[in-house]
Amino acid sequence: MNWIIAGLGNPGDEYVGTRHNVGREFLMDIEKKNGEKGKLFGKKVTIVFPDTYMNNSGVAFKKLVTSKKQAEMFVVLQDELDLPLGKVKISFGSSAGGHNGIKSVEKAIKTKDYVRIRIGISPATPTGKLKKPTGEEKVVDFVLGKFKAAEQDKLKKAKKLVRDALELLVTEGRDRATMDIHSRQ
């Protein structure tokens, strides 16, 4: 069975460069630089970019991920408001929190037992305390906002971690990828 890898985000040019599209855009870039037809890092994979808006992301996976075994080989790259910009976490079987795109995915595939690569998008103090927005309207404006020029270095660091996480996942498995990526941060 091959890995199915999805980059969540919103379709359309107006969303390019927004925080909510980081999963989609990272995967597009990684596929362009490290992929070939039907393969990523030399391994057979299926790469999916949903053509629905974030909150309906699950629609794209309902027919692709139809068993528990397939779900365990399913990877979703997503933005994560609860992590500081530059941090990357690999999760399996964890809660969607308040992420509506992830809630949609879990409803469609009927399980939480899949791999999530969570890409931090929130600003933080020098000591690491998150400075994320509060209130639904502020959160929506924030996640649909574009990254600032001063954030590009942390964004590049995160993209390298995501690239490495995907390579380890498809070549050595979830446990190795999780251990390696989490030990670097």
Question: What key phrases describe this protein's structure?
Answer:
185 residues; 36% helix
Please explain how this structure is put together.
There is one protein chain. This protein is 36% helix and 21% strand. It is of the alpha/beta class. It has a single domain (3-183), classed as Rossmann fold, CATH 3.40.50.1470. It starts with a strand and ends with a helix.
CATH class: Alpha Beta
- The overall average pLDDT, rounded, is 96
Radius of gyration over C-alpha positions, nearest whole angstrom: 15 Å
Shape: globular
The end-to-end distance, rounded to whole angstroms, is 31 Å
- Under CATH, the topology is which? Rossmann fold
The structure class reads: alpha/beta
Work out the strand percent: 15-25%
Please count the helical segments.
Answer: 6
Could you list the spans in which at least 5 consecutive residues all have pLDDT below 50? Answer: none
The largest sheet is: 7 strands, mixed
Write the CATH architecture name: 3-Layer(aba) Sandwich
For CATH, the homologous superfamily is named as Peptidyl-tRNA hydrolase
List the helices and strands in order: EHEEEHEEHEHHH
Task: Domain count, please report it.
Answer: 1
| Total DSSP E strands | 7
| Helix content estimate | 25-40%
- The side-by-side strand order for the widest beta sheet comes to 2-3-4-1-5-7-6
